[in-house]
Amino acid sequence: MLPKFSGLKVLVVGDVILDEYIYGNVERISPEAPVPVLVQNKDELRLGGAANVAANCAALGALTTLFSITGTDKEAEIIEEMCEENNIHPLFLKRPEQHTPRKTRFVAGNHQMLRVDKESKVKMKEEELKLLKFLPSVEQADVVIVSDYNKGCISKKLMDWLKGYHSCIVVDPKPVNAALYGGVKLVTPNKKEAAEILGIPTDALNDKYIEFLSFKLGSNVLVTLGEDGMKYCDSGSHPVSFPAVAQEVFDVTGAGDTVISVVGLAIASGMEMKVACELANKAAAQVVAKFGTATVNPETLEF
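Predicted structure:
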């Protein structure tokens, strides 16, 4: 089934983020304050947020279009250039008053010392929503993947508009926007997000709660559970477990992006959900063994 990923048309909608990594060594404490001094020796820029989802889809051979709201700043320019380098077609609604999100991580050895976020949340305006009808990718897409990082791109009007045009929508959610996702094909929260949507402690999440989550959202759900794997639940059925296959967890950054990319493409290609979840499990195992956001390719996903 993997070759069917090649040529699939995918529209990714959501918050793009520029991920910056500053690497170095710590050998002393600052004389100015009791903090370590990082001597920088390398820096790196990567696609983050919805852009990382798009990068995963493109790496698997899909014809990928990415829609987002950005500023007119340097970050937006860099993301746009990186998208084109990664065979992603960017369609950005740019605003002078908005800051494109940038996450800067300071890393010593294999340990993240600090993360600095630059962002602004600006909701889509009514007149801007009308521009979406000019997006040719929506009706032509085999699947729409919504990557919600709660930075302002995803709104009720946008979700209603997408659901009115497409029946195959998968969502990587944020609990604060849970009410917007009702009736989509699949929602993929992690354990913490699922518990927050339900209003329960994270440790209390069990199969009955996952069943109720599916009912509450009116959608199929795939809950990622970290070292405990995943659980999939469709309407009216008992959750199916998929044990984790990761041999080593190095960094979970971007694992959810990879999961929704693989599952979204699998659904669009007609793959059975059990096989799709197993494939997503394998993909997640590969990216958590790497540092920072990462992508997978078809060769490494073959069973």
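Summary: The first strand starts at residue 9 and ends at 14.
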